[in-house]
């Protein structure tokens, strides 16, 4: 009897105090830094074992890892990005039937950089996209009344729509 395929979970968190993150809050009190100053984390876990996380500004994490990475990976292209807050690189690339996540800005559960994780491809892409949608909803809830955030929110909406279109096209296959 075959076991069920590994499940992938992607969750965003927001730092509310030094070394304290709240997982997927509905809203947080703004500290005056604006949308680009909101520090976040995206955690990835595979039920078959393994957890990693990335940290940066939440808008950058949402755009890069929740929207652009799934779009590129679904189009069979590797993804690479530079993390600003913790200077370093993150790579996502095909590894057999999965996707390998690595780089010196990928943290393991112990908080050490340079961690790696291999996750099944389609579940990872879906989990990241869903996480991005939840993060975007959170950002709207938190910043919709802030006129300085309007451009960033609109840009994230555009990246989200492009990502979804790319993923849907890849799943339909060539015509």
Topology diagram in text:
Blueprint: E1 8-17, E2 20-23, E3 39-46, E4 51-57, H1 58-74, E5 79-83, E6 88-95, E7 98-102, E8 117-120, H2 121-143, H3 150-172
Antiparallel strand pairs: 1-2, 1-3, 3-4, 5-6, 6-7, 7-8
Helix pairs in contact: 1-2, 1-3, 2-3
In words, what does this structure look like?
This protein is of the alpha+beta class. It has a single domain, classed as Secreted effector protein pipB2 fold (2-Layer Sandwich), CATH 3.30.2450. It has three helices and eight strands. The protein has a four-stranded antiparallel beta sheet with strand order 2-1-3-4. It has a four-stranded antiparallel beta sheet with strand order 5-6-7-8. Strand 3 and strand 4 form a beta hairpin. Helix 1 runs parallel beside helix 3. The protein is globular and about 45 Å long. 37% of the residues are buried.
How many strands? 8
Q: Give the overall pLDDT as a whole number.
A: 90
CATH topology: Secreted effector protein pipB2 fold
Give the SSE order as H and E letters: EEEEHEEEEHH
CATH architecture term:
2-Layer Sandwich
**Residue share in helices?**
25-40%
CATH C-level label: Alpha Beta
Shape: globular
Q: Kindly provide the radius of gyration, computed on alpha-carbon positions and rounded to a whole number of angstroms.
A: 16 Å
């Amino acid at each position: 009897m075959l076991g069920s395929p590994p499940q992938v979970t992607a969750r965003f968190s927001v730092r509310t105090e030094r070394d304290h993150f709240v997982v997927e809050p509905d809203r947080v009190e703004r500290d005056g830094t604006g949308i680009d100053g909101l520090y976040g984390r995206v955690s990835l876990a595979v039920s078959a074992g393994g957890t990693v996380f990335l940290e940066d500004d939440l808008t950058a994490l949402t755009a890069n890892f929740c929207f652009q990475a799934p779009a590129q990976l679904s189009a069979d292209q590797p993804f690479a990005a530079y993390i600003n807050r913790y200077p370093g690189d993150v790579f996502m690339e095909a590894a057999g039937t999965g996707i390998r996540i690595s780089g010196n800005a990928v943290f393991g559960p112990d908080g050490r950089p340079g961690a790696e994780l291999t996750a099944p491809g389609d579940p990872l892409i879906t989990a990241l996209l869903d996480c991005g949608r939840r993060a975007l909803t959170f950002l709207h809830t938190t910043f919709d009344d802030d006129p300085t955030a309007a451009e960033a929110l609109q840009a994230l909406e555009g990246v989200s729509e492009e990502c979804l279109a790319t993923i849907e096209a890849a799943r339909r296959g060539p015509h």
